[in-house]
Amino acid sequence: MKKGDHLFLVDGSGYIFRAYHALPPLNRKSDGLPVSAVLGFCNMVWKLLRDARDTAVGVTPTHFAVIFDYSSKTFRNEIYPEYKANRSEPPEDLVPQFGLIREATRAFDLPCIETEGFEADDLIATYARLAVEAGGDATIVSSDKDLMQLVGPCVSMYDPMKDREIRVPEVVEKWGVMPEKMIDLQALTGDSIDNVPGVPGIGPKTAAQLLEEYGDLDTLLTRAHEIKQNKRRENLIEFAEKARISRELVRLKTDVPVEIGLDALALDSAANGPKLIGFLKAMEFSTLTRRVGEATGVDPASVEAATVEVQAKAEAHGPDLTVPATGIEEEGAEGEVAPDRMDDADTPQKLAKKLADAAPADPFDHSRYVCIRDLETLNHWVDEARETGLLAIDTETTSLDPMQAELCGFSLATAPNRAAYVPLNHRNGKDDLLGGGLVDGQVKLEEALAVLRPLLQDPSVLKIGQNLKYDWLLLYRHGIEIAPYDDTMLISYVLEAGSQAHGMDALTERWIGHTPLSYKEVTGSGRSKVTFDMVDLERATTYAAEDADVTLRLWKVLKPHLAARGLASVYERLERPMVSVVGRMEHRGITVDRQILSRMSGDFAQTAAAMEEEIYQLAGGRFTIGSPKQLGEILFGRMGLPGGAKTKSGQWSTSAQVLEELAAAGHELPRKIVDWRQVTKLKSTYTDALPGYIHPETGRVHTSYSLASTTTGRLSSSEPNLQNIPVRTVEGRKIRTAFIAPEGRKLISADYSQIELRVLAHVADIPQLKQAFADGLDIHAMTASEMFGVPVEGMPGEVRRRAKAINFGIIYGISAFGLANQLAIPREEAGAYIKRYFERFPGIKDYMERTKAFCREYGYVETVFGRRAHYPEIRSSNPSIRAFNERAAINAPIQGSAADIIRRAMMRMDAALADNGLGDVQMLLQVHDELIFEAPEEAVERAIPVIRTVMEGAAWPARTLSVPLKVDARAADNWEEAH
DNA sequence: GTGGTCTCCTA
DNA sequence: GTAGGAGACCACA
């Protein structure tokens, strides 16, 4: 290569995505193979080769190469394991086109370059440098900002879609910095799509301004303490190291060892017409085939279509754990409103990125918040929401419990900084013992709701909330069913379960770089704490309006990431519908018999008191039995019993397991302690606590389910937790008799039998297990028989028990240590069992290994339905942390798929019951693999088959499991008998 | 009052 | 060995 030569470097990988999203879908006529990106690519390359002079570039290439990414793993992952950890799977109809575009490149007789461990961008940087050093010029065919750092006197970029050349002035205009400063700029802003951390709260505008002022990143970071804005200064100091790492991630390598030299990129003047035509014919691109034929003087009719192999796999595409979650089933909810479209957002990834970048740039202006105190103004806002089609809403109340809370007011937002608070029930300060009077000038609650109701139920206005189940339930109590809606907490949960928090403050910090006013600052804390209705209107407005403002901004930033990461259907089909389904369940509650519990409490108190006397006798004095510290001192100090395990703070453990061992060795006191603990546990946690949760008006207990607090997709229940009501011991089980159906009704309990083992058999594809489930066999006995060669007929209980423990162990990501513990056998023996199990069911070992490998590479694992659970610490250098995360990663697809299945059943249940004339059958509770219903006595027999059908068919049609699901269902007057 | 530790209840 | 929530105690503020 020499002076005057001009090298064209096509960013092949970048082009593929851009073309795919920019061009209308196109399928090969003969077989439907998707080819739109391939056609776009061929047209572009042909144009550049033939008449680049007529384009914005204005020069003819002498050298030409197409560069691709080799794989997702590059040296950047060494610097920062999280790099590109967010990457989503490419769309299904793009996958085959990766290979085809490489084929096309070869058909054009162009060098097709990729190097393991490097991104296309690094190769482009390297070749651009070589070209300039040789005295030539280079044009990079791409519009990716990551490449803009390379722009200079001899290097330009060319956007083929817009036919626009990007030189130094264009970079400066767009980003506010010279191209060489792009590295520092990107280091500051980060990149949420590639997962480059950057510094929170700094977007392109701020970054450019800072670089203008301080010159470069290093200077900026060393002088960060001079910055006036508090948050910005703190962030720059705190995240300085992240910024430096980011710089290394965005800095392109210009010294990649290249096998193909510059000279090999020289264009051959004589295009190989027949070869190219053969390919184009195979693709069935008739227009381009004709053009190429005319230009090369080759008659297309004389050329046979080439044989082109279609690969099913994308480049940089990890092992397939599950089928992609896109596809076949029911349509998304109605009333979906698309987020703002941006002109040059060609892909969901770029749109998501753009919105994330833009978020911190829009400063909060509390002075623009409005306090709405008359119906006319409220009506005006309602009209505004109808126009925008978007409304962020947040309610302010007197309690965290939506079943008890009184509405104090609500806030609305229709655009950033365009937010308002509508006080409804605010009271004057504490000067009056009766709580003071109503603050003047507030819209009446009923009038406000009358205005709001049609809007909140308007199918053309999307309502946005953060933890919307709370507001949904509160408004449901006022006869309003919000729809359609989105929940920013649930969006975040779908995107980042396991790796990040989903609370509003955390989300705001992370995505917007802003700290909202805290609730505490507004209502006070401790003794001086007041309910929200006592807060003066000005402060209340600032706080409440900001919450709505923040929620709207979060939605704008977060929502596009769903599509960008291929998670929209997980959100729409597994997550969002739960808000109203679970909201209804919480609203219904369940009847708990106060008398039964109170009687039990009395009995327990007597029993415990008697036990305490015996314990003091045996211990030779009084002490606090409930204090593990004191108990340990007595048992292992004063009495000199042999201590077993230690707790992590170095204390002797007094766990039930340790005490049981001592009891088995003939010691009386430990036995009594174990019994005492059981009684006091049942009393304090259940019989004493549950009545306190009976709602004063409904007379029922309304638990609260959290939709976003587990990593795997399970729900959790609290206040009270109704997912841990005792069942194992006879004594404990009695507590369930207090959960009853009202007069004339029955409780129905329906639970999945062995759902997790069935999911395991499906995902790990274990023929023996699948067969056993298909045949309806006793799965643990079958396992035992397979492992130990003992016939199922007349099998000793102990043998089956061990197999059962191993089966559970497998689901939990087995370790010899854990199994040994569980079965109270030596670790060697446990290890031998595991080995035997893996030999008998080799697919299990494969499943575990590929799940771990997948998680190590991507940072998450997926359920059968595409839900992701993140385990960033699986790459920890600490072996025990790593092992823990590996076990969790093995468990998550199993536990999570089962959770997805029951969610799907729950979402369909109300409609299925109603369709069968069972509208009076109500789903009340969920306990992971069990659903509890309340039904009129005469409806029970018809309800059970409907419930069973919905639950057993819940995976379909999204997935067809290779094992049947089985549901046992029973009805009774109370939960103990129904279960 | 708040937060950490220990223990124990569930699937 | 997985996933949770809660009560009691206790040291800290």
From TrEMBL:
Annotated catalysed reactions: DNA(n) + a 2'-deoxyribonucleoside 5'-triphosphate = DNA(n+1) + diphosphate
Pfam families associated with the record: 5_3_exonuc, 5_3_exonuc_N, DNA_pol_A, DNA_pol_A_exo1
Residue stretches making up the 5'-3' exonuclease domain: 5-268
EC numbers for this chain: 2.7.7.7
Family: Belongs to the DNA polymerase type-A family.
Function: In addition to polymerase activity, this DNA polymerase exhibits 3'-5' and 5'-3' exonuclease activity.
Protein name (record): DNA polymerase I
Originating organism: Chelativorans salis
Source lineage: Bacteria, Pseudomonadati, Pseudomonadota, Alphaproteobacteria, Hyphomicrobiales
